[in-house]
Amino acid sequence: MKRKQYFTFRSLALLGALAAAVGFSSAAQAGKPDVISVAGNKPGSNMHAEITAIADAASKKFGMKIRALPLGNAMGRAIALKKGKSKIWMSCSAYYTAFEGIGDFSVQKWGPQDLRVLILANRKANFSLATARKSSINSVADVKGKRLSWVVGNSGINMQTEAYLAHGGLTLDDVTLVKFPGYVASLRGIISGQVDVVMAANSSSATHEIAASPGGLKWIPITHANKAGWAEVQRLAPFVAPVKITSGPGLESGETAEVGTYPCPTFVAYAGQSNDEAYWLTKITVEAWDTYKLAIKTAPYWQVDTALKSRFAVPYHDGAIKYYKEIGKWTGAMAAHQKTLLKRFKVLSAAFSKAKAAYSGDAKGFGAFWADKKAAALVAAGF
Q1: Which of 173, 195, 186 has its CA nearest to residue 74?
Q2: What is the largest CA-CA distance in the chain?
Q3: Measured between alpha carbons, how far is 262 from 241 in angstroms, rounded to an integer?
Q4: Contact 380, 346 (CB under 8 A)
Q5: pLDDT tens string 234-252
Q6: How many C-beta neighbours within 10 Å does residue 133 have?
Q7: Distance from C-alpha of 212 to C-alpha of 208, rounded to nearest angstrom
């Protein structure tokens, strides 16, 4: 009788432990979304290859679906996010212009957007000015008077275009801008002969197309020794940094190029977006890395320790911060910078509201009016 009672109590104890484990597992899975929609780029871009690989890994490792929305330009992706058609925006640099309320976002219907970062791909590849290998353009100064690509609805790319021109003492008035509906289309403008200079990444498949075309490809140096030039680059595009590339399209064996780069792509969402979705997309990108790392060449940039070395210019989402704290990656320095960026957004938001209320001119003149008010507000707040 005692032996039977012993087994009964032991069974109850095991059942209790099992129930507790199941309860813990359920709690850990609480809030896990079935589907997360992400607005990204069209096929032919690195961004599309990356979201495809991460989505496949999410399905295999977590049984979750990432629904990618391929849209041609950054403004289209921003609109999809704002209207709720996507929960996450996969952006390269336009999210920064949206946060600041500049470029395409300096109009009255937009202004500073309360965006938050989930994770940044800290790429070591470049993103800078390129031309045909047979071209006589060998420096930024040589771009004067030439045809330069301009991507409609992508103020992030265009901001960098202007910044690199400044490295050589040029402005947009010194070139002829040729408009394209998207990044990949702008790259192919070199092949078709529509432009002389484009903004390109040496990791992009479309850049390989240019290099393989009859005209070939070469990189216009953004020389690192030109400190004054780089000060201008970073004044106009604070997230851009110098990088040296030694391989890839546009480089012959043994060649190197001093150019520029920035973290790209970045997953961003509005501050008010569900913490669960921000948490899980961050978790998927980090923990499914071993599953997708062989599927894309840019995988090393997504590895969490590399990614978190990126200098972030837009605050992190609370859901992402929750995950980084769980894995012990959220640092005091990151928290301090987060606080500064949150303060900056409050200043931007308040200044934009005042600018809208005070402005009485036509829509075309608002951007310049807002730029002055923005600059004054930031200086007054100590930025």
Answers
A1: 186
A2: 99
A3: 6
A4: no
A5: 988 888 989 999 999 999 8
A6: 16
A7: 6
Is residue 347 classed as helix, strand or coil in its secondary structure? helix
Nearest to 269 by CA among 117, 104, 54, 47: 117
Instruction: Confirm if 238 and 260 have CB atoms less than 8 A apart.
Output: no
Give the CA distances from residue 167 to residues 39, 146, 221, 328, in Å, rounded to whole numbers and listed in that order.
Answer: 32, 16, 10, 39
Task: Spell out the alpha helix ranges (H) of 30-138.
Answer: 46-62, 74-82, 94-100
Q: Which domains does the chain have, with CATH numbers?
A: 35-122+265-335 (3.40.190.10), 127-261 (3.40.190.10)
Q: What is the pLDDT of residues 98-157, one digit of tens each?
A: 999 998 999 999 999 999 999 999 988 899 999 999 999 999 999 999 999 999 988 889
Name the residue among 96, 90, 97, 87 with its Cα closest to residue 270: 87
Q: How far is CA 140 from CA 134, 197, 235, in A?
A: 16, 10, 17
Query: Which residue in the block uniquely carries the two structure tokens 């393989």?
Result: 212
